């Protein structure tokens, strides 16, 4: 089961921060910040461990079971982990009837800032449909937004080769604003200008 590196890094940092905080508050590693070690906190630790192992369905059930009895310190964290589990389960259960549906989903991920997930979806489209100019265009947008200049130029160039209308679209697309001062980008969009 492959997960987004970015998401897993954020979760790992969050878990490490929680452990450090819990340890410093209780005076001993793994102790509950208020009541010491107790069944609720042990249940929470077990749920976190399931999450770390990528067992999102089991972690989700464990966190949901914990909600009614969780103290305030664990309640918000548990809700956050429930959302993480739901996102991961949704991601792995996705099926698209057409490449265009997959593209729409990739764009929604891009627009909400889930860049690695968007990149994965664009690459999935290209793996199944190498001539999908719109997926290359989407990758070029993503590359521009994430500062990957050379990849942006390469993907946009290929998208334009496959469909010259992408050149016209890129000329008016504000998402390429970071590329505007690059002469290679200008040459790609306006090849007829000396």
Short overview:
By secondary structure, the protein is mainly α. Helix content is 71%, strand content 0%.
Task: Quickly list its features.
single chain; Serine Threonine Protein Phosphatase 5, Tetratricopeptide repeat; 10 helices; elongated
Q: Could you estimate the helical fraction of the residues in percent?
A: over 70%
- The tally of helices reads 10
Report the CATH C-level class of the largest domain: Mainly Alpha
Using the coordinates shown, work out and report the CATH topology of the largest domain. Answer: Serine Threonine Protein Phosphatase 5, Tetratricopeptide repeat
Oligomer: single chain
Provide the low-confidence segments as ranges: 1-9, 15-36
Shape label: elongated
CATH superfamily of the largest domain: Tetratricopeptide repeat domain
